[in-house]
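Entry 14. Ran structure prediction on the chain below.
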Amino acid sequence: MPVRSLRQSLTEVDPAHLRVIARFWEVDPQNLSREALIARLLPVMMDPERQGTHWARLGPEEQEALRTLVMAGGAMPSATFQRRFGEIRRVGAARLESERLWERPTGPAEALWFRGWIFLGFVEQPAGFEEVVFIPDELRLGLPAMEEAPRPQMTEALPTAPAPARIRRAGTTAADDFCTLLSFVHNEAPSAAMTPEELWAQFPGLRRQLRWPQRERWSLLWHLAGTLRMIQARRDFLRLDPEVTTRWLQAPLMEQLRALLEAWRDSVTWNDLFHVPTLRPESTGSWQNDPRLPRQTLLQLLARLDPGSWYAIPELIGEIKAKNPTFQRTEAEFSTWYIRDAETGDYLRGFENWDRVEGALLRYLLTGPLHWLGVVDLGELDRVRLSPFGAAYLGKGDPPPDGDTRFVLLEDGTIEVGAARRYERFQIARIADWIASGEVYRYRITARSLARARGQNIGPERILDFFRRYDLTPPEALSRALTRWADRGTEATVEQALVLRVNDPELLRQLLATEARRYVRDVLSPMAAIIHPAGWAQVRAALLRLGVVPEESLETERGEPSGP
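Output, structure tokens:
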């Protein structure tokens, strides 16, 4: 679609340029005012027969340039068109006429510019205002028939690639680890002042529970929990919104994954460009990107993939570069964004660095967020394909299966719960300690987990009722143990410790008279005591001062922790 009509386009042309156009269309510009010249030109340039005659006079390169513009929908980014068909010089009237530049055009683009076939204007694109080259509709009446393709829609089939030998499936881990994140917030109530990076560093137990313990992915999931309004700060601590959280936990797998994906797709506060490991964007305040545009571009491209087929990532990126290179920023902005190469520190300016900026961002989105959130599977040799969820989300397949749904209570208080039961697993994490993650999660009821449950006003009877609700009959021994714990608290403790044994009771009495006695947890007998593992170095030093060289097991020789 043209940016301007022919009349509007001629009105905006410089008078010297307007006279050049008139000469090519055999209209004498002498002694004519600007308005009169335009009035004389319009019927001539709009005559289909004259257009056909002028088309025939164009050289093969000029015809190819005009054909490319028409087939692109009548308009193309100015810089893209000029990169292919030559520069259009912007000069003043004096130089234009004194040097008669129309006689020596720089290439097909400038030749068409001087002849009045093409014009320049600005249109508003998703990435901002962009200068385009366009041909007005009135100039296409006498041209040969050309199939016009909408711009920048891409519908033709993409070439597939051989299947890789090794595959990294996305699976349901996004939903599984998001459920683990919610359980962590509910049970630990971390400080609202802590960043995702600090939580990652200070809670190693949480990292072990994740099916995919990758720090950047954890940060994204944490951000999405806030975007979905599940996590809120209350009195300096983080708490879950029970209504929103329960709704997500009880939703089908397809809806759980869709919620995470669309929260990322529409987020303007998670900026993927600033997470590309090879780039160092600088927030100078003079430029700003919209992180939603690259995501939309890639999802549109993925919608063209055939489920089950593999594709080469470089070819997918090349398709966008060829058909829609300005998906993120306009041509003018290729030189105004402040982005450095992370390794060299060089500024990546100009279209010549498209692969290092746009290309790197698209690769990051495919191998990072779109894979983390379950949309694509990855394979060796730079391969990618739609996952079952990705195909279903894009309307190309059925929803993925829910996965393992088992729910078992064993006699020793161990609970096995399938990954598909995220609501039940969230509830189990409130009353039992985690043991293992996978398609089946394992938890165990312990004195510590019961104390945690009691802190949430969950007593033994509520725990037993919860199991009965799912037709899980608690073993009689477990029921008695829960009731007894409620009455008496913890009556047995299991812990790792070092046992010191001596051959003479006097030696133990002498040791207890030294400062090392602070590391003695308990005296088992006149010739045995339990030693705090962290204080073994100090106890050993005290024994040496008493003239005794202890025989040490391999366990004590592995390390010497300092401090109690």
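Residues 173-188 form the longest helix (16 residues). Will compare against last week's run tomorrow.
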